[in-house]
């Protein structure tokens, strides 16, 4: 299984890291480690998650974030966005449209 992470998702991760880094020392790094661990688990679990807004949505285990991905091929997961679940659903939908 191949996993691709698009630029928009990388930008989301950086924004999350900056937010959590302001909350506490090394928390931003912990955020990235935790989310990338969840993304790595797609090697095993890709395709089993609920579909929302036309994407598979995997909820992160340690932070209130959701990882939105698609599977263009059976052996490939493409992470489109990593979004804060505390945002309004309309904002999430709009983020996934762009």
Describe this structure in words.
It is a single chain. The model has no long low-confidence stretch (mean pLDDT 96). The protein has a five-stranded mixed sheet. It is an alpha+beta fold and 98 residues long. It contains four helices and five strands; from the N terminus they run E-H-H-H-E-E-E-E-H. A hairpin with a 2-residue loop joins strand 4 (65-73) and strand 5. The N and C termini lie far apart (26 Å). It is globular, with a radius of gyration of 13 Å. The chain has a single domain, classed as 2-Layer Sandwich (YaeB-like fold), CATH 3.30.2310. Helix 1 (7-23) runs antiparallel to helix 2.
Summarize the structure.
By secondary structure, the chain is of the alpha+beta class. It contains 4 helices and 5 strands; from the N terminus they run βαααββββα.
Features:
single chain; 98 residues; YaeB-like fold
SSE map:
Layout: E1 2-5, H1 7-23, H2 27-40, H3 42-45, E2 51-52, E3 55-59, E4 65-73, E5 76-84, H4 89-97
Parallel strand pairs: 1-5
Antiparallel strand pairs: 2-3, 3-4, 4-5
């Amino acid at each position: 299984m191949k996993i691709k992470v698009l630029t928009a998702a990388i930008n989301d991760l950086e924004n999350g890291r900056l937010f959590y880094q302001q909350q506490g020392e090394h928390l931003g790094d912990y955020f990235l480690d935790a989310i990338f661990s969840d993304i790595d688990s797609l090697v095993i679990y890709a395709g089993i998650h609920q579909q929302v807004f036309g994407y598979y949505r995997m909820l992160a285990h340690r932070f209130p974030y959701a990882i939105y991905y698609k599977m263009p091929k059976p052996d490939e997961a493409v992470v489109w966005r990593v979004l804060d679940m505390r945002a309004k659903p309309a904002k999430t939908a709009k983020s996934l449209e762009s």
